């Protein structure tokens, strides 16, 4: 046996790699079509009932010829069905089945995967900037990624943050359940569009929540979301860097019973400073919670689908965003438990505890 054979016993053949890449091209085309269907309102219009290309174009203010080609692609790809495939092209009526409608239009369903497609397709607009960053060692910031990144990230987490997170996951931890039941003060670090803070407030009417984020447009949207959800009297959002010297946590008036960071520590250029601020912000007996990606404990190749997904986000979004800031540690999406443990200890914590909360994509840590 050669050395190469011993080190890579499962090396794929050229045919296998070619087949996989070809399948990925088909998947990429489907993602791009989904991006267009979302941005142009095609899916939402089809969810209301079957449409011809003429009807879809008229209802979405788009060109019929483009609408027709998009509809036919979606039918050929198995997303849409056609009531009358033998009719004239402009008279064929296309239908969005219930299962597809849930995935593509139900913003509160756990099966709403469309935001991930929007994120992936939107990042394609920045490949030139990413290539430049790879060459220079610089980055592409969250602000540069723009509205696609902001909106798709928030939409992807919205079902969890308004559903299982406040309703099932957080109350399953006794120390956190006690905070929720007695109406404690909660700080949400890196709150984005505010769905985690809003979800906690909706599920637990006695609590008050302060959300903090460095992204101004996200904070403005979060404030509007809180008003629309009817919780603006108990949920406040602050445009501030929680890790900066002037950030929260400097006085007793800023002490909280639960200080949480939901899926954001791996994005932070200076996570130790933020974790140290979270420690300062915590009242005596309070809980510090970090929820981040459930990646493998150690590197191994090949990896499972979740590991591949997280590396995919890292090479096109999270690592470039992190490295866009001076002095960044450059964590990337794949933040393993030992990496967080090192950050926590540098921030003054003794250790991290992995909590017994089971989720496919997220791991729950208590910092002690």
TrEMBL record:
It comes from the Bacteria. The keyword Cytoplasm does not apply. CDD domains: AdoMet_MTases. It is an enzyme of class 2 (transferase). SUPFAM superfamilies: S-adenosyl-L-methionine-dependent methyltransferases, Winged helix' DNA-binding domain. It holds the Pfam family WHD_Rv2258c. InterPro entries: SAM-binding_MTase, SAM-dependent_MTases_sf, WH-like_DNA-bd_sf, WH_DNA-bd_sf, WHD_Rv2258c. Gene3D superfamilies: Vaccinia Virus protein VP39, Winged helix-like DNA-binding domain superfamily/Winged helix DNA-binding domain. Keywords: Methyltransferase, Transferase. Residues 36-105 form the S-adenosylmethionine-dependent methyltransferase Rv2258c-like winged HTH domain. Its EC number is 2.1.1.222, 2.1.1.64. One of its GO terms (biological process) is methylation. GO terms for molecular function: 2-polyprenyl-6-hydroxyphenol methylase activity; 3-demethylubiquinol 3-O-methyltransferase activity. PANTHER family: METHYLTRANSFERASE DOMAIN-CONTAINING PROTEIN, METHYLTRANSFERASE TYPE 11. This is Class I SAM-dependent methyltransferase. It comes from Pseudonocardia aurantiaca.
